[in-house]
Design a protein that fits this description.
mainly alpha, elongated
Length: 79
């Protein structure tokens, strides 16, 4: 198998994934709803630490706790 990886010019794991055609491989595994919501929650928590400067940022900061609560409720229901 390593020789095939060299010939194809791909990583060994990539070649194995290509050869395992009988498995259902979901190309969007890493971007499921749960993953995206977790990423959004993390980024919003980071943004919450920054002092809002513009009126639009202040308006968003005002609604941010409710939005984060909704995201956490959805993530809680997924478990």
């Amino acid at each position: 198998m390593p020789a095939l990886a060299v010939v194809v010019g791909k990583n060994l794991r990539t070649v194995q994934r290509y050869l395992e055609s009988n498995q259902n491989t979901d190309q969007e595994k890493s971007t499921t709803d749960v993953v995206l919501l977790k990423q959004a929650s993390t980024k919003l928590k980071q943004w919450q630490q920054i002092e809002p400067k513009t009126p639009q940022e202040k308006a968003l900061a005002k609604h941010l706790p409710k939005l984060m609560s909704l995201i956490e409720d959805i993530l809680g229901n997924e478990k």
